[in-house]
Specification:
Elements (H helix, E strand, L loop, with lengths): L6 E6 L4 H12 L6 E8 L3 H11 L3 E4 L5 H7 L6 E4 H10 L4 E4 L7 H9 L3 E4 L3 H17 L3 E3 L2 H9 L8 E8 L9 H4 L4 H4 L9 H9 L1 H14 L6 E5 L5 E7 L4 E5 L4 H10 L13 H4 L14 H11 L3 H17 L7 H12 L9 H19 L1
Parallel strand pairs: 1-2, 1-5, 2-3, 3-4, 5-6, 6-7, 8-9
Antiparallel strand pairs: 8-10, 10-11
Bound molecules: nicotinamide-adenine-dinucleotide (NAD) and magnesium ion.
Nicotinamide-adenine-dinucleotide (NAD) binds next to helix 1 and helix 10.
Length: 389
């Protein structure tokens, strides 16, 4: 018992919303008695990272920010915990011999370390949807080549993973991704023109990082999730539906050829999805709120309005066009999102810029290597920055 049977894990992006929830789930599932933490990574918040590393006895702590190396080193002095920084530090973390890796770095920055962990055969608990949106088939192929499992953490995909019967593959007609509709679900397009970051970040149901919260308000988050679902579950674009469901109780559904629809329900708490990814194929015992159906009383549904939320249309366009359109959509969107956060672009400009860049780069063929993916991402960012002036 004890040491021998502990599972080795790493958490990329441990200081973020998903990362902190993951550490909480790890604590509830036995903490240091059950898990050996190999590497934790963060970016700016080195004090929190150092606290997490000491509390879990991590072997290695990495800040993605080269400039914070000294601060992290100081915060961990005398602890015996190794310290690294920058992109090479993230790769060092990915090379540590953890059997299970939570990929929860936000954005394209998560791609290289997650790919490294996948190639050496770790099970990848995937929160970072950008990996699949940008690198799609290449990323899935890397996981398969490494021999590890791909465990979806995004709540919608985790829900589908829970109700998708692999032995009924032939009978799967469609997946139905639910979307809360975000804070602007009922707002007119005219009013959406001048919304602020403060109102855009206020998600009605889920507590998440800044960027994904704003992506939820624009429904770019759902757009990324449509492409994510295509690659995770090997679907055709027309098999992927989106339905607005303001209560976020149904986390997503799978429709079968006999008319049955299987859904996964729960309170909006990411720890359920994280726990499922950590304990699969068993279920963990987690202190999340239980659904109270009588109090809930009703579940509402409405079709997404693609005029007010063009991101949904852009995702379908990217899937149908193929090529590097996923990487381009994501790269251009990230630049436009940063511009919105900094006050350099309006809320509606995010979709306009993304679509213009997608159209401009429609000729680029499907990527053969990861370098092709990174090149498309770079070019999309350059074009988006140019359009922003
Ligand atoms: P967050 O902003 O709270 O945390 C992001 C983490 O990434 C932090 O640890 C941060 O230090 C690190 N980071 C930031 N910039 C970095 C960089 N340039 N290089 C390396 N590390 C960097 O974000 P989050 O809400 O935890 O989301 C993380 C990922 O999970 C995203 O891809 C998001 O789309 C996905 N996701 C999140 C939720 C959620 O409920 N929060 C749900 C589904 C999917
Ligand atoms: Mg989601």
């Amino acid at each position: 018992e004890g040491i021998q049977s502990r599972r080795s894990i790493s958490i990329f992006g441990s200081t973020g919303s998903i990362g902190r929830n993951t550490l909480d789930v790890v604590r509830h599932m036995g903490g240091g008695d059950a898990f050996e933490v190999m590497a934790l990574t963060g970016n700016g918040s080195v004090d929190l990272l150092a606290t997490q590393a000491r509390a879990t006895g991590a072997r290695l702590a990495v800040t993605a920010d080269d400039g914070r190396y000294g601060a992290l080193k100081d915060a961990l002095s005398g602890s015996g915990i190794a310290v690294a920084a920058g992109p090479s530090g993230l790769i060092e973390a990915a090379e540590m011999d953890a059997g299970w890796v939570m990929a929860a770095i936000v954005g394209t920055a998560g791609l290289a370390p997650t790919l490294t962990a996948a190639r050496r055969g770790a099970d990848i608990a995937l929160a970072n949807k950008e990996c699949l949106v940008s690198a799609g088939d290449l990323f899935v192929a890397a996981v398969h080549a490494g021999g590890g499992r791909l465990l979806p953490v995004d709540s919608e995909h985790n829900a589908i993973f829970q109700v998708l019967e692999e032995n009924q593959r032939h009978a799967i007609e469609r997946v139905i991704l639910t979307a809360s509709g975000g804070p602007f679900r009922t707002m007119s397009r005219a009013d959406m023109a001048d919304v602020t970051v403060e109102t855009a970040r206020a998600h009605p149901n889920w507590s998440m990082g800044l960027k994904i919260s704003i992506d939820s308000a624009s429904m770019f988050n759902k757009a990324l999730e449509m492409i994510e679902a295509k690659h995770l579950f090997n679907l055709r674009p027309e098999q992927i539906e989106v339905i607005v469901h303001p209560q976020s109780v149904i986390h997503s559904m799978v429709g079968y050829a006999d008319g049955s629809v299987l859904a996964q329900l729960g309170c909006p708490d990411m720890r359920t999805a994280i726990g499922y990814a950590l304990s699969h194929p068993r279920r963990a015992n987690l202190p999340v709120d239980r659904l109270d159906f009588a109090r809930l009383a009703r579940l509402d549904f409405e079709a997404p309005d693609e005029d007010r939320f063009p991101a949904i249309r852009l995702a379908r366009l990217a899937m149908i066009r193929g090529g590097v359109q996923g990487a381009v959509l994501n790269g251009a969107k990230e630049v436009a999102l940063e511009a919105f956060i900094d006050g350099r672009a309006s809320f509606l400009a995010m979709a306009e810029i993304t679509e213009a860049v997608m159209d401009a780069l429609v000729h680029i063929p499907a990527p053969a290597t990861m370098d092709d993916v990174f090149a498309a991402d770079t070019e999309a960012r350059r074009r988006a920055a140019e359009l922003l002036g």
